[in-house]
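Hi V.,

You were right to ask for the full record rather than a summary. Here it is.
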Amino acid sequence: MLVEVLFTVFFIGFFPESWHQNLFQILYVLMYFTAVANLDQNRKLIIWIAAVSIIFTGLARIWNHGIIEAISVSLDIAFFTFIVISLIRQIAQAQTVSGRVILEAINGYLLLGIAFTFLVALTIQFDPGSYNFSAGYIKQHDFIYYGFITFTTTGYGDFLPLKPWSKSLSVLTAISGQLYVAIIIALLVGKFSAQSHDK
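Predicted structure:
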């Protein structure tokens, strides 16, 4: 799963732009199912919900109806966010710190960043003037770039939120990135330290 997430976040930009949309969709579906497969609880039910969600997304694209597509995208984002939160909860509840838990923590951080990227893309779909992205064609990697620059609180300032609610989403994104590092990493360090003392 880490390879899929890393490829989505870091390497798609190195391919020709005409490939980006298709690569992103393929990787999104792969991440979706891999994230579901990594959940320890309610896996079968969640896999069925994921399959239905992806089928609904495919039908929305075939029918090419704006309202159906908006509902489909909203459901996808909600379900993806639920998966990410479930993975983060699973990391926080781990009794011991192993290599798998560390990889899951890295995946959790990157997937949370991708979830916020999806929220930014959704807000732009409903209100194209909510950010100062160029008025022409907005590229997928622009969303990923903005989402992660905000999530990591780097904030170069080349893309800016313009509406009050898009500014609130940016603040939520930045604070969530910092809280993840502060809370999840602190939990893992504390558990690892307790493991070391017990040996």
